[in-house]
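Q: What changes when flavin-adenine dinucleotide is included in the input?
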Amino acid sequence: MAASWDAIVVGGGHNALVTAAYLAKGGLRTLVLERRERIGGAAATTELGPGIRVPTLAHTVGRLRASVQKDLDLGRHGLSLVAPDVRVFAPSPDGTQVTLWSDVARTAAGLTERSTKDASAYAAFDARVRSLGRFLDELGRSTPPDIKAPGLGDAIAALKLGRSFKGLGRDGSRTVLRVLPMAVADLVAESFEMDALRGVLAWRGVRFNSVGPWSAGTAAILLSDGAGNDGGAAGETVFAKGGPGALSEALAAAARAAGAEIRTGAEVVHISSKDGRATGVVVAGGEEIAARAVVSGVDPKRTVVDLLDPVAVGPSLGWRAGNIRQPGVVAKVNLALASLPVFPSAGGDESLLRGRIVVAPGIDAMERAFDAAKYGRWGTSLILEATIPSLADPSLVEGAPAGTHVMSVIAQYAPYELRGHRPTEGDPIATWEVARENFGDGVMRALEEVAPGIGKLVTHRQVLTPVDLEQQFGLTGGHPLHAEQGLDQFFVWRPLLGHARYRIALERLYLCGSGAHPGGGITGGPGQNAAREILGELRGRRA
Ligand SMILES: Cc1cc2nc3c(=O)[nH]c(=O)nc-3n(C[C@H](O)[C@H](O)[C@H](O)COP(=O)(O)OP(=O)(O)OC[C@H]3O[C@@H](n4cnc5c(N)ncnc54)[C@H](O)[C@@H]3O)c2cc1C
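A: The predicted holo structure follows.
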């Protein structure tokens, strides 16, 4: 069958849309096939009740590459961003708090009351996170080298990376090698004495991953989170007006404007191949669509294990792909509230609630929460990152009764496999289907500790468990990043050694989602890098 498409992009997550937009701009006839009725994957907005919209899964979009925004002219396609001055507010049940602002000096000034040592160390820590983050950003923009047959392009890329490594200076280059494998708990303890501050900074080293702050390599996760954005020690906090779904709509508009076609309700059940080359896809219902290349925005394990013919993949790669680590530990709770909740630690200052509200009481509390997840249950303290996006973007509640707000809560550690959770002693071990609302109650109890009375304000509640993330959003193992962001799945090892250059298993089969380098989060990074590789290979070739 003659191919009417140059490229079929499987999945309509934000990375797939980024790739599709670049491919279409580059002159390739591009078709996107998304399994759900809506595009965006984890970057979506949900209607929680009449006139009430909330970020479905992800809530902040500040890691999106500036070059993606510019190249695809996302402003013209409707994207509008809001960045509050406050980045993080970390309340404690005893009424104390830590606040991280976009202004480093303001953060340090606020810390003085509780610890002059920590206040004076903050600016240097922020500068270090930024400088190492810049290097990791360079790494993230480059295609990992070809380890089997390095060519001229690899040599040039290595030279560029070598130059930016040298640019770190002698101290910086030693620091990056020392710091990346460290536990984030050790990294923050080198600079700070307050457990509350250590906890809130270390949170970004464990967020979305099945690790605790004492796990090796978590310092690298923290530094990667600051790569290519204005995060610094505080991390970014940027909202898309209309929720993350508005970002996906802007990407889709950019892709369509460049000539791409996007179909929803189109689940790809098989990627076809002939003589070791991808030739198209089969969609649920049986339709076969041919293409010169297939690009998967779906996670690499699902791509290789579920969508390809095992004979074409071969036993060795099939086994390795089956072992890509995806231990989901994140759940999502979305709330509509009749009015703004009261956080005594905020002392009535509403502006403190406009960023991320992090409930991570300290290093040991986080590690204990992770311990419980290791054994297939959740612990007495949950670690939460909440936002109230309706403060920065009232359009989310414009059709709701006056005073309504929405709260988006990322709840960790909720293990995908509930191997040890019994609703009450003596009960059999529960499944997520049984435990869903029980977990939602646990999240509400954790919120009540810092915002007493919040439970009474709830008018709508949605609890999405790690199994829902898999079944409804296609996140295998419930993993938000498509694959754990450990050092064993980093750079040339993401997703697998020998397959980190956006090509896998077959000729003309590419990866463009979060499971590819440089990894997950709303960055558009894997999508942009993959498009560069695909265009380099396909443009100018007829067949
Ligand atoms: C609860 C939660 C909160 C998060 N919070 C944040 C945050 O605040 N900020 C941030 O930067 N990141 C956050 N993340 C991470 C971030 O959202 C993801 O890493 C990122 O959105 C993944 O984008 P993607 O395009 O790579 O893949 P996805 O968004 O996973 O898209 C993959 C798409 O493929 C589709 N698909 C799957 N199988 C098929 C098939 N067979 N055929 C066709 N289509 C298929 C899926 O339906 C989906 O639309 C969060 C993630 C979760 C789960």
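Observations recorded in class: The chain has 19 helices and 18 strands.
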